[in-house]
Amino acid sequence: MGINTATVKLFPYFRDKEKKHHGYLGMALLVILAGLVISIIIYLMLRPHFVAHGQEKSALFITYFYYVVPLIIFTLLFNVFDTYYRVLYNAVKGIVYKEIVQRVLILVVIIGFAFHLIDFRLTVILYVLAIISPAFFLFISLIRSGQFFIRPDFTFIDDKLKKQFLDVSFFGMISTFSGVLVLNIDVIMVDGILGLSAAGIYTVTFFFGTLILVPLRTMGKIGSVVISDAWKANDTETIQDIYKKSSLSLSVIGFLLFIGIWGNIDNVFFIISDDYLAGKYVILFIGLAALLDIALGVNPQIIINSRYYRYISYFLFIFAVLLIVTNLLLIPVYGIVGAAIASLISKFIYNLIKFLFLYKKFGFQPFDYKYPLLILFSLIAYAVSLLLPRCDNYILDIIIRSSVIFFVFSVPVYFFKISEDINNNADKIMRTLFSRTKSD
After folding, report:
1. What's the whole-number average pLDDT of the chain?
2. Would the pTM count as exceeding 0.85?
3. Do 299 and 243 contact (CB within 8 A), yes or no?
4. Where are the domains of the chain?
5. What is the pLDDT of residue 334?
6. Of the candidates 27, 181, 243, 302, which lies 20 to 30 Å from 369 by C-alpha distance?
């Protein structure tokens, strides 16, 4: 229902601890309650369609059809609580619960299944509980921190704010739906055209390619609130500074992760088994597509928090159409690799549109001479990794190969000062280590 977009953009008008932020959280929960009722009713009504079309290719999904309902509920609750925490300048809790705690719980469940400690049905149940756990943790945290204010103050919302709230929410809903669609449409189309087995291989290898995006998600969550406040104050200098610095810092991390993954690509398949070897080049093309996102930093947050917030919905719609068309053309020819190539082509055009839009409207652009240097250092580090002899023990090979890639890449990045923020953090770490060494 677009509430998360509205929260980031409009919460600065509600922020007042003494007045309990005018009960904004309560209003947000009322909105998602309406969305939940609509979503669940539609989902249940579509069950006959899923059964008719999924019995042969996706029988397991039909078996566990109703497990999706709690996932819908608690995913929405987590998103609302996480966004609320972010606008209160505390993005860390949601990141920790979602990116660390949840993944650890899922890993424990997978290990239990792998060692035959639990059967498949219990694995699915525990997996669902792991997925919904961050919402519980954030709920408890909000109560303990004294920020759980749920009595809405509707008198605070005048006609102007109400109109803006509805407008932002509407376009936020469209952009959120489009965003979810573009994140999942390739998997859905692979499943529909090639079957569940191919979709499983694509999903697993797709995950390795998108590992590069983890820092961007974190930066986007933190940066969006600061950008929203800067737009409110019309501080375009701060926004351009965030745009450029985030792009450089994320690109350094993104390129390092990419060459680290691709330099260890043979070791990846030792870990996940050769059964997934058909998805090798899925990792390559999805990784390259992720680098395009990384290079443009927080530009979606800049657009969506500006007065041109409607345009992100238009751009995402174009992106979705591109994905559908390119997948239809390439999956039948190249299989799951075609889906990855379709994502790369679509994402390039989508990111180019966003880049040109921000440059034309505000003169914002994050690139300078440091980017060619960054690409050069990445290529050198990868080339050096190719010269290394392969160890029989793949774990030892990962350690040695990754260490060499890190050293060959990081040293010139540091001395050429590609990212001021990364250099400052590296200097702090080295000062801390040296001070401890001297004290010892």
Report:
1. 87
2. no
3. yes
4. 1-157, 171-421
5. 93
6. 302
